[in-house]
Amino acid sequence: MKKWIPLFCIAIALLACRETEKTKESDALEKIKAAGELVLGLDDSFPPMGFRNTENEIVGFDIDLAKEVASRLGVTLRIQPISWDAKEQELNTGKIDCIWNGMSVDSSRAAAMSLSAPYLQNRMVFVVKDSAIQKVSMLAGKKIAVQNGSTAQKLLEASDAGKSASALIPFDDNLTALMDLEKGGVESVFLDEVVADYLIAAYAKSLRVLAEEGMNEEEYAIGFRKKDLKLRDAVDSVLNTMRTDGTFAEISVKWFGK
User: Fold this and answer.
1) Where is the Solute-binding protein family 3/N-terminal domain (predicted)?
2) Which of 50-64, 97-111, 160-174, 207-221 has the lowest average pLDDT?
3) Cα–Cα distance for residue pair 7/240, rounded to 1 Å
4) Closest of 96, 102, 32 to residue 69, by C-alpha
5) pTM of the entire structure?
6) How many domains does the chain have?
7) 156 and 177 in contact (C-beta within 8 Å)?
8) Both 114 and 185 in a single domain?
9) Tens digits of per-residue pLDDT, 166-189?
């Protein structure tokens, strides 16, 4: 009997822990609906996902998606620019309700946040100006730019291309990095293909993506606080409905042409 009592107590404790985990789920969705707004955190220099247009308005593919999701949840969208390096802190301190800005899925982010279902596929690519550079291997001994705090930075640092480069130069945003590439400050920029295609078409026509030299196909997801499961699931549900009724496709065609 004495042997069974401790085991019984352990079983009760484990059940209590599981019940506590269930009760840890937040009421963020209810609070957002009561407040009437969803606060989206983003790096406002990440076209075409979220960026400032010539009228200084924050626009983009993710912004259009989020506005529609917020509308269907019965709230308005408030867009809050943040430091990308401090995005998890901004989220966990309650300054924003979600991170929705072409955020790539990786293990560290999955551990730190509750991630939505992936909503966009992407890959990382090298952009160059010099016509003599035809392969990634030809970037050995050259300077490569990358956005600071991005998954591209982590991937580049661990890659053969990154290790063989003369220097990896961090920039606050991809557009500034591409402008430096045009001026000859660096020989390449490593970034998301969807961003590269948009920026080259819009701002930097003398640059090009190294064909068939992409790395690490990845997916974008929306980041929520670990306990905000109801909010995450509500957003996922709306996005699924938007896929079914064609709204998602319309927004995709608007920004990507396909």
Assistant:
1) 37-258
2) 207-221
3) 45
4) 32
5) 0.73
6) 2
7) no
8) no
9) 999 999 988 899 999 999 999 999
